[in-house]
Amino acid sequence: MSKKAKIPLLLVIIFYALYFTLTKVDWMSGDAQWFSKVDSSPISFVIKRYETWSSRFWIEGATLIASKHLILFYIFTVILTLLFFYSLSELFSFNEYDSNLVLVVFFMALFPVVSLQSAGPIATIVNYIWPSALFLYWLMTDRHRKMKNIGSLQNSLSILFLGLAVFNEGLAIILCLYLILCLIVEKKNFFNTYRMICLVISLLSFLNVLLCPGNQNRGMLEIARWFPTFNHLSFLDKILIQFNNIASNLIVSHNLLEVLVILLFIKAIQRRQRLSIILSGAVIMLTSASHQLISDRLSVIVKESPGKEFNQQIIGTLLKPTLIFATLILLIVLIIILLYGKSKTSLMIIASLVITFSSAMAISLSPTLLASADRPLLFLYFALVFNCIFLVNDLSEFNERKASIIMDKSK
């Protein structure tokens, strides 16, 4: 790998610096305005916050400091953004300049940066982007351990970063599901000191969420504010609402699912697989045709949920869009299997989407499942964007291999 291979990663910093400058983003909007007025030391604040509001211990303190000291926020965001993309580049084994350029350009094009505004940019970035960067560094290290010797410093750093990352409950769920998958795939090879430490961290992260007194107190307050009849809903009702909430964001708001399917469609054409071409085309048409249905049915729920007279019968109207979205998901999984067979590539794409989708579904147990906007879906967005980037790179590599074979034959 040449020293210049990672240079494109710097474009991310330049792009987002220009984006936030030109759009004149209000950094102190949303939760940051409240945090900036807190008259307390970070340590005493996070302790009180843990007791009364949230299990995101250090994240709450970091949000407080970031809201009061913008320079520190900028510095740490730049560092962790670079760590995010470096870890991702290494995870995908993008060791060429062109591959990293594809990574950066398509991430900037596909990732819905508007999602960082829902609770204000500072609060959202500190709560989701910072922990994601730490988690990706650990994931990169964990995958590399199978291929090469990792130094004790990197191992120690990755464990530390993992311990910090899983204070975000979404990442705690992702870690648990990832470790279960590794155990199933690797069997006896799974068990080593490093992985045992990771298992302990996973267990502690769940205990932190379940036993935190602040989470219980917050839940009661948020029910009264955001969804007064939430406790009267059945488990299935909550699942249906969140399932459709995800569908609306992936299909209507950001079109990420369509982009993924279009790339699979191109891959199917490239490989000349007729069944995959037909199925991909059908998914694209069904996705486009279902926009209005998914949007209209969910919007009624969103409008009515804050009221004390919420009619639970309207949840039944979600059954049709639920069936459509479930069909789309199953067809996408089938297309991936048809294109890549029973391979590590199929496992990587499907597992990353299933795990992050499950993490997004977990918010259905919270009364803020609608009030949180699409923040809990950010990890799923990452997985979709990462897989789109992987497919773009795979498409270009296929063409390069084909061109190389043609050149060899012509000699």
UniProtKB/TrEMBL annotation:
Keyword line: Membrane, Transmembrane, Transmembrane helix
Keyword Transmembrane found: yes
Domain of life per record: Bacteria
Statement: the UniProt record of this protein carries the keyword Zinc: no
Bilayer-spanning residue ranges: 7-25, 71-88, 100-116, 122-139, 159-181, 193-211, 275-294, 314-340, 347-365, 377-395
Protein name: Hypothetical transmembrane protein
Species per Swiss-Prot/TrEMBL record: Lactococcus lactis subsp. cremoris (strain MG1363)
